[in-house]
Structures are given as C-alpha cells and as structure tokens.
UniProtKB/TrEMBL annotation:
This is M18 family aminopeptidase. Keywords: Aminopeptidase, Hydrolase, Metal-binding, Metalloprotease, Protease, Zinc. Its cofactor is Zn(2+). It comes from Barrientosiimonas endolithica. Residues 191-217 have a biased composition (Low complexity). Its EC number is 3.4.11.-.
Length: 217
C-alpha cells in the first residue's frame, strides 16, 4: 500500500488504498502469529529495527520492535530528549474468535474423521457452518533432535462443519439453531478407517507428529 505525504507532513491515503491495504493485511494474517509477522515486516520496511530479547539492545535513538510469539512491541525514541520525555501508547490485540485445535484432536465418529476443536473468543458459532475451512497457526515440529516452531497455513478447503439436514432437526424452524460447542462444531476432513466408532487415530497421523502450540480454523 502506497501513501502520499500531505503539506502538513501527515501520510495521506485514498479510500481505495486504505481498503486494499486492510484486505491484504487481513488475508496475510489468519492467526496471531501471522499477524505479528506481517506487522513486523511492515515495520521493518518503514525503518524499524527488529531486536531479539536475548541480545543487547542499542542505546542510541531510533525505531525498534521485538516479537514474542503472538505479541509485538514497537517503539520510537527518535524525538526523545530524556527520561522525562512524554510518550504516547497505542495498543491492540492480534487474536480473533476461531475454532482452536485441541492438543489431541484426532477423532472418528459415524464413519467420519473429525478434528477436535475448542471455541476461542466470542465466536458467532453458526457462521462456521457449511463453509470451506482451512488451518493456520503455529506448530512445533521435530527436526532430528531439535524442536522447531513453524508457522502453519493451509489455504485449502480441507475442513467443513456441516449443518444437519432438516429431517434430522425438525424443530429448528420453531426453536432456532441450537449448537453444543463440544459436540456439534468438530469439523470433518475425511472418512474414518473404522466407521461408527469413537476412537483416537494412529500416532502416525500428522497431528501426532507435530505439537500444536496454537492453531485454529
């Protein structure tokens, strides 16, 4: 997203530029970890220096930022004259309502392979029904003897939370949609090897090989 500088020195955006920039940011940020990495990249492009918490920090004035998981802090000391200089603080959260994957998510019921999830935040749960869903978040994988955190993003329609057909929920038109968050929101993503049974899948599944530190739908 490009910006022009007005006569007062402030950045000026057109409505289309602002809308396009917001859409691009949201598309690139499906999880808090992606949002933080996207924001950090934008800050670095604007001249901020990314610092590691474990390394010495510079004493000179400048623009800096640091990242820890799904959190980011950025600050500027360019115009600071001393420890009594006033400062402005702006805060926002990086998370949003979603279906978060449980630590042991592999399930099989009624012939379907399901993914165990937990509702995170104030989600409007009915909005998740009958939609193509993907995955995003952060996982920890084993590489030799080392555990490595990696960002995960699957922009493919691999999951779906299906709504019951009308003949299985006759009262819906009179009583409204009633969803049990533990029983009715587990998305399906394949056929189970043993239909009509509730069980855990084999430890060789990908969800067992990777530790889900934070991933959602």
């Amino acid at each position: 997203m490009s910006a022009a500088t007005s006569g007062s020195g402030a950045l000026a955006f057109t409505v289309d530029e602002a809308a396009d920039g917001l859409c691009a940011y949201v598309d690139a940020s499906p999880s808090p970890f992606h949002a933080v990495e996207t924001t950090a990249a934008m800050l670095e492009e604007a001249g901020f220096v990314r610092l590691e918490e474990t390394e010495p920090w510079p004493q000179e004035k400048g623009r800096f930022c640091t990242v820890r998981g799904g959190s980011l802090v950025a600050w500027s000391t360019e115009h600071a004259s001393g420890p009594d200089s006033p400062m402005r603080v702006v805060g926002a959260h990086t998370d949003s309502p979603n279906l978060r994957i449980k630590p042991r998510p592999d399930l099989a019921r009624a012939g379907w392979q399901l993914l165990g999830v937990e509702v995170y935040g104030g989600a409007l749960v009915n909005s998740w029904l009958d939609r193509d869903l993907g995955l995003s978040g952060r996982v920890t994988v084993r590489s030799g003897d080392v555990l490595e955190p990696r960002l995960l993003r699957v922009d493919e329609p691999i999951l779906r939370v299906s709504q019951l057909a009308i003949h299985l929920d006759r009262a819906i038109n009179d009583e409204g949609l009633r969803l049990n968050r533990q029983q009715h929101l587990a998305p399906h993503w394949g056929s189970a090897t043993r239909p009509a049974t509730s069980r855990r899948t084999s430890p060789s599944s990908w969800t067992s090989r990777a530790t889900t530190s934070w991933a959602g739908i």
